[in-house]
Design brief:
This protein has 8 helices and 9 strands. By secondary structure, it is an alpha+beta fold. It has a single domain, classed as Trna Endonuclease, Chain: A, domain 1. The protein has a 5-stranded mixed beta sheet, with helices on both faces. Strands 1-2-3-4 form a 4-stranded antiparallel beta sheet, with no helix packed on it. Helix 6 links the parallel strand 7 and strand 8. The longest helix has 27 residues. The chain is globular, with a radius of gyration of 22 Å.
Length: about 300
């Protein structure tokens, strides 16, 4: 898998996304070289979601075990039941991966659809009949999600500013790739698609981080709203919008999670790693670097 390299801050910095291991590094000539920076989703991952995930994983295993029992003999013996339970144990991993694969496909399809509607690309065909790595059942779910996304596009006037663009905050030391920065019905907005059962409020922590990073780079622009769009795998469409009245509180919560991520990295015992450096104001960092070169 090839790394993806993106120039940001007018070419003064470069973000590299390492596809194979799924992490970001940043290079600023004279300031840092391939500096690892945590992702937005890594920080948000420090929020404990086990209260919902554990019952979901148990349900996945239970449903698969029942399915296997129904396919077997009427009165399975103890060894057969043990085999069934072993086979069902990791079902949640398969379901999670299939959901992620569907989500990635839907994100890419919706990006191309929106670019096609904007005249900067070719609209993909719909419905989708096949796709690499997706089973017919997964294709069916993807088509339902896509149909919901198309309804959202039909209901709003959307002008793309950035799509799937990596953003870096030198001041706070994180990187993330947001789905969309666009003018939605005339307002500059940060938007993120989800393909789950419903929208969760953590989407607004994610969007706050993307908004702050975007505005740090493009200081003459201000995003006025954040939009979460859930295009469910069952075809339902759900949207939620927050304006800047909640931005600072949402961003403070994100920064608290980022702090927790850094603390966790530094407190793993013999596996501890130092938290990656924070560059701070990019102009100041570059100026300091150039001054040091001149003095040397």
């Amino acid at each position: 898998m090839a790394d993806t390299i993106t120039q940001v801050y007018g070419g003064r910095a470069t973000i590299t996304f390492h596809e194979l291991k799924h992490y970001y590094t940043v290079t600023v000539p004279g300031v840092c070289e391939n500096l690892y920076q945590p992702s937005v989703t890594s920080a948000i991952g420090k929020l404990d979601k086990s209260a919902g995930l554990v019952p979901w994983a148990v349900e996945c295993m239970t449903n698969r075990a029942k399915e296997l029992i129904n396919l077997g003999p009427t009165n399975p013996d103890r060894d057969s039941l043990h085999t069934i339970l072993d086979a069902a144990r990791e079902t949640w991993r398969r379901v999670k991966q299939e959901s992620a694969d569907i989500g990635s496909f839907v994100h890419g399809w919706l990006e191309q659809e929106l670019k096609g509607r904007s005249g900067v690309g070719v609209r993909p065909s719909f419905p989708v009949n096949s796709a690499p790595g997706l089973t017919p059942e997964m294709i069916e779910k993807a088509n339902l999600s896509i149909a919901a996304g198309r309804r959202f596009f039909d209901e709003h006037n959307i002008e793309i500013v950035q799509a799937e663009a990596p953003r870096w905050s030198p001041t706070f030391g994180y990187v993330g790739t947001g789905d969309l920065i666009a003018r939605v019905d005339g307002d500059l907005a940060a938007l993120d698609y989800k393909t789950g059962k419903r929208l969760y409020p953590t989407v607004f922590l994610q969007l706050a981080a993307y908004q702050k990073a975007y505005e740090e780079e493009f200081t003459d622009q201000q995003i006025v709203k954040r939009i979460g769009v859930n295009v469910g795998r069952d075809g339902h469409l759900e949207t939620a919008v927050r304006d800047n009245s909640t931005l600072e509180r949402d961003f403070e919560c994100f920064l608290a999670l980022l702090t927790a991520w850094r603390w966790d990295r530094e407190n793993q015992g013999k596996w501890s790693k130092s938290a990656p450096a924070v560059i701070g104001n990019l102009d100041v960092a570059i100026e300091r670097s150039q001054k040091t070169v001149v003095e040397d």
